[in-house]
Design brief:
9 helices; alpha+beta; Rieske Iron-sulfur Protein; globular; single chain; 7-stranded antiparallel sheet
Length: 353
């Protein structure tokens, strides 16, 4: 693709309205909104949203804006029996309906039953909550065909997992550079010695498309730098990742150690992201903390340097896009996944997906 796709702020603004506003984006883990009235705020495609647990047990997501004069309603995380706007104290129930508007009742033209927060589609995917600003978008099981069953088979305990630790990072690059880098291991032997020696056997690495999901798989390294309980899972001695286009990935290190990537770009050249680490019921695990620390100090730090350099290099007058290396066997030294991401991107920009 033209380097401008990674560099031009006007193109990033278009992406917010097309790619990012029409695809499934991660909100939070369902356990983070377990209690009635509990909520988590977050941004998608430049829009402030919040996900909240209703009294009937359902989970709903709303645009974080009061229907009166547009003030934002909530910040961060918390628990609220009612949602009270900080501006004029318009008050909403946890299902989004208007409960009270001071001095408005009985006035001509005011009908509280016609006023409700704008809801956003929400789906529960193995305990992880995702939202989509596009009301007409296909369901997750259509977009990521087969991914739910494949993940449940690879990690049967996934729905019992809860967040144990979250680490925040910022990639000084366009979001597409970050996710393209994540989805190929052509660079692994050269750029990730810890991952290639202490986590997986690189030559066993394959990546297979499953709808708009990319399924990474590899055998664990015999030189693993942490202990593995081979009885914990039928796939304990394997590595897997399930990237859900465009900005989220489940990753299961040998062990099994479940972790996630969630990218949330806020500028054309800046992509904050989180690495979530999960354990059964969120219980403390020194092994998982060790892996998280090693991952941050090595693979993540290395990738941050790589994508920062690519962002600078794409702006060079001397750069001419070279060919991708495609292996029909979809093995280690292949960029077929980068080609897939570019294709999905172009389709989304044209409104075809």
């Amino acid at each position: 693709m033209d380097p401008a796709v990674y560099l031009d702020p006007t193109i990033f603004d278009r992406e917010r309205q097309t790619v990012l506003a029409t695809t499934w984006q991660y909100a939070c883990h369902s356990s983070q909104v377990a209690e009635p009235g509990s909520y988590v705020t977050f941004d998608v495609a430049g829009e402030s949203l919040f996900t909240m647990r209703h009294a009937d047990g359902s989970v709903r997501t709303f645009y974080n804006v009061c229907m009166h004069r547009g003030h934002e309603l909530l910040e961060g995380t918390g628990v609220r029996r009612l949602i009270v706007c900080p501006y004029h104290a318009w008050t909403y129930r946890t299902d989004g309906s208007l409960h009270k508007a001071p001095f408005a009742e009985g006035r001509a033209g005011f009908d509280a039953q016609q006023i409700c927060l704008t809801e956003v589609r929400t789906e529960n995917f193995l305990g992880f909550l995702f939202v989509n600003l596009d009301e007409a978008a296909p369901a997750m099981d259509v977009v990521y065909s087969g991914a739910r069953d494949a993940m449940r088979e690879f990690l049967p305990t996934i729905e019992a997992m809860r967040p144990m630790e979250v680490r925040d990072f910022v990639a000084d690059s366009n979001w597409k550079i970050a996710v393209e880098n994540y989805n190929e291991c052509y660079h692994c032997k050269n750029a990730h010695p810890s991952f290639s020696k202490g986590v997986v056997l690189p030559d066993s690495y394959t990546i297979t498309p499953m709808g708009h999901c990319l399924h990474h798989h590899a055998t664990s390294s015999p030189q693993q730098y942490y202990e593995i309980d081979l009885d914990a899972s039928p796939h304990a001695a394997e590595y897997a990742s399930f990237y859900l286009w465009p900005l989220f990935s489940f990753q299961v290190y040998p062990g099994p150690v479940l972790n996630t990537f969630c990218w949330r770009p806020d500028r054309v050249d800046r992509t904050p992201f989180t690495r979530g680490w999960f354990t059964p019921n969120g219980a403390n695990s020194e092994v998982v903390r060790t892996v998280a620390a090693e991952d941050a100090a090595t693979t993540v730090a290395e990738d941050l340097d790589l994508v920062r350099s690519v962002q600078r290099g794409l702006a060079s007058r001397g750069y001419r896009p070279g060919p991708l290396i495609i292996d029909p066997e979809m093995g280690l030294n292949s960029e077929h996944t980068v080609a897939a991401i570019k294709s999905w991107y172009q389709q989304a920009m044209l409104g075809e997906s």
